[in-house]
Amino acid sequence: MSTMPPGSVERPLRVAVIGSGPAGFYAARHLLDAKELRAEVDVFDRLPTPYGLVRGGVAPDHQKIKSVVKVYEKTAAMQGFRFFGHVALGRDVSLAELQARYDQIVLAVGNESDRRLGIPGEGMVRCTPASVFVGWYNGHPDYAHFRFDLSVKRVAVVGNGNVAIDVARILATDPEILARTDIAPHALEALRASRVEEVIVLGRRGPVQAAFTPSELKEIAELPGTDALVDPLDLALDPHEEEALALASDRARRNLELLRACAARERSASRALRLRFLVSPVEVLADEDGGVGALNLARNRLVQGEDGSLSPKPSGEHETLPVGMVLTAVGYRGRAIEGVPFDERRGLIPNQDGRVLRSAGGPVVPNLYVVGWARSGPQGLIGSHRAASGEVVQAMLADLAAGSVPPSAARRPAEIEAWLTERAVPYVSFADWQVLDATEVARGQRREAPREKLTDVAEMLALVGKGPAER
Ligand code: NAP
């Protein structure tokens, strides 16, 4: 068989993308759209379902954001695209095995772990990372069997980003509103029985430094049946903060306006969502049952650093906040995958402009790339990853043009299916996913919801004829 440089119709460039969230789908699309070459892209995901955080992270009451999957469906329909769901890198296939079968590999594995507070009592019953709660209400199979005790009256949410706002909002929303979304059935049932009356969101810095966005804040300010409340004293700005506000983005100014409107409100609804600032939990205190009973909070003041940034420093004052549950939403981080370089300190895959490095500051691993949160850490809204993945694809094409992929005989796409079948890896194709998708949509009709998610991997596999009995 003759050898040819990859990228032609006779000898397409063969790429594996690991992870089918937004960044992975955008990378696939850029490759399939590239005018200068012919690419074939296989997208792998460890779950039988595609779309990563759009399915498992975006809140159920944000259906409009989820409509972005229509773009990914178009990508999936393009010639040269294939989906291999339920195939995990590090579990079912190794990086070396993929490197032997593909010309280039793109890691789009996201951030599957969380930052921790690192305070005593953090691992206590009813103190949980927000990502677990998010995965639970979104029906992510890893968290579907988790139980949240919503018989408590007060919940603290630590962090001031959009994830903190998401989880606080889900706890404070009328479950009958959520019933018409794709919230997981087990979460809907638990929220219907919830006795939570107050959710308190704790920011370690001031309102001007909050990471959440005005549209998310406006949503909680207008939540039916719940009062969003702020203590006016928390909005009194010191001279450093006034200075920061003068230089701040429109986002911070708009946030402050909305918070001031909340501060002017009296409590009237049965549920409250309180936003507090300049407090840091220093210890989770146990109740008599051994679960969360309270938080020991240190009050903070802001101290200006040499670069002008404002950091929280303990003022010396403390308070005890009685709460029955704590969700920590202080940022996500990546999880190391067997055989894949990982920067433990930064919680991401070490890279230079998307080219994976053997270790932070080390040499480049040829033909291995990273996109999305695994590349940059947890930042940027979904749409921003379109351009970011495009930059990495440009680097891939530049490397290809520079001869990074040696000429070789064409690789036959059917070899991948044969290889996985021989290994007894029951993969889910995009056509299989469409069967699951149709099942979910049909089940959703029972409660006038866009879909009712399947949350059990064994059930998903059985529905597409890949269950144990069919193997
Ligand atoms: P984030 O925006 O980075 O917010 C993390 C928050 O945690 C910050 O307020 C940070 O405070 C705080 N924090 C960090 N360490 C802390 C500690 N030790 N003690 C107390 N607080 C601490 O992260 P995120 O909320 O996880 O969101 C991740 C990304 O997803 C963001 O880009 C976000 O906008 C996006 N997202 C968007 C939506 C939406 O559009 N609806 C929904 C969810 C997520 P400091 O600022 O003081 O560090």
Describe it for me?
The chain has helices at 22-33, 52-56, 63-66, 69-76, 95-99, 130-137, 162-172, 175-178, 185-192, 214-221, 239-247, 250-263, 373-376, 384-401, 414-422, 430-444, 457-463, and strands at 13-18, 39-45, 81-85, 104-107, 113-114, 127-129, 154-158, 198-202, 226-230, 271-276, 279-286, 292-304, 310-322, 325-328, 332-333, 351-352, 355-357, 364-370. It is α/β, with parallel strands linked by helices. A seven-stranded mixed sheet has the order 3-2-1-4-18-17-16. A six-stranded parallel sheet has the order 6-14-7-8-10-9. The protein has a three-stranded antiparallel sheet with strand order 11-12-13, with helices on one face. Strand 17 (355-357) and strand 18 (364-370) form a beta hairpin. It is globular. It starts with 12 loop residues before the first strand and ends in an 8-residue tail after the last helix. The mean pLDDT is 95. The structure holds NADP nicotinamide-adenine-dinucleotide phosphate.
